[in-house]
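=== Structure Prediction Worksheet ===
Name of assembly: unnamed complex
Input type: mixed (protein and possibly other molecules)
Chain count: two
Listed entries:
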Amino acid sequence: MNEHPRFHLSPSSRASSFPAHAVDGLAGTSLKHEHLAAILMDKPQRAFFEVHAENYMGAGGPPHDALTRVRRDYPVSLHGVCMSIGGPQPIDKAHLARFKALVDRYEPALVSEHLAWSTHETTYFNDLLPLPYTEATLARVADHIDEVQEAIGRPILLENPSTYVIFPESTMSETEFIRALVRRTGCGLLLDVNNVFVSATNHGYAAFDYLMNFPLQHVGEIHLAGHAEQTDDEGDLLLIDSHDGPVADAVWKLYEIVIERRGPIPTLIEWDSEIPDWPVLQAEATAAQAILDRHAAGVCAHAG
Amino acid sequence: MRVDGGMSESGDARSFAAAFTSALLMPDRPAPAVVAGPSGKAAVKRYGVYRNNVTVSLINALAAVFPATQRITGSDFFREMARQHVRATPPTSPLLFEYGRDFPGFIEHYEHAKSLPWLADIARIERAWLDAYHAADADPLALATLAAIPPERLMDVNFVAHPATRIARSRYSALTIFSANRLDQPVSQIDASASEDTLITRPGLEVMARRLPPGGATFLIGLIAGESLGAAASAALDEAGAAFDLGGNIAGMIDAGVFVGVSEGSHDVD
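=== Predicted Assembly ===
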């Protein structure tokens, strides 16, 4: 597959403010304010932390103080939640400038956004909304990714969504759409395995088939999270991407399949509501780290 | 340059978002026809997931900005009040820590909150508290800087406010009620009828909310607006009379880090 990245790397003449901590092969967790004291006291040896970019777009105060302290000792992943890349209207220039400022300031090891949208006209809906997969939306989303990558001077990782509805007007599958975006923009991918499982269940296809059609070679980060169960209008299971509990067994199994095929990829445990005490969240990351390490050893053995 | 596949396709690409959002904040409207379930399934409950996510997450956002307000009213009351505000005034910025600026005004006119006339003022302090939390960092004005100004020029001095500084005035005991309800501790009976003016600022990493003495709010509001020390003091004296203590107010504002600098005419001093 030929890639034609259209972003230009800006010359890195600026002196770095932080050590360049590598994120390769690590399991990490979302950075929650509730856990900060425990993290700074425990000083976990191998970890990285992901933050929602928007929470650090204030001018100053405790959020920046906390992120600065964490960034000194760990790789940080900057995860944008509301760029509205998947929406039909132009990218919000002021928001993109704020995002770029965070990339410049914190030099994150990973930078990601969503294949989704959240703003229409002037209203911000605070949810990751779905889009139809057509040639027209493909062209627009590719333009938006180009614009973001051009602005920040590096490729982003685009995250696959969890969805509850389909658009009958779609002319291609989600994996076809994502493959085309990678080809057109040179972006990388953030594979959310829980999202794959949620969407597959909700839309009646096999999560394994989705993964086999997903361009795994472009995945630069993995997300794992918990989901909740509801039912649809027909009384069938409808999974909700709720991020409010431990990772489900089925998702761990799919994750291991991906790591077997691709080797260790930085993996993040997301837990955004009903937030547990730090040791509970850390235990989930430790479980992911064990899988990563097992397959890192495998890769080394083959290489040797 | 990329060109869209054609007028109709481009039109479709724009319209899906308009159609999808048309019922998100309106529970009585049916799910839009652009979405469906797989294999001919219905999408009423499926679309309802998005509708629920939007409304509940925005109510949660307001609850996070206004925790004392919620504690006073109780969760059910607060969430219903917040739900109505979310539907009437959804956010226009993706920065949710900016949301809720219109919520105190909404509370003031909310029919079911009429028996809590001070509730909007509690919400105003909470909104100011979050502004102070996220405001730019700056070193407060040192007493020595002020002391170095010759006494005969002092009344002409202007001050530069700290980016975190906010003043919230109330005809009620807003700060006492706010303070009692921000913490997860039992609240005893409070006399709400004594008017309280509150200074909210953040000289370091901790936001502070402090009660201002008589005339103090008028004095600081004047200084923040760029009035000279003499003019702001005169306005405070007009309001509070002998109860206004100029020396005490200056000492208090330096101690609280309300300002970051002074300027004398065209001459700036940090």
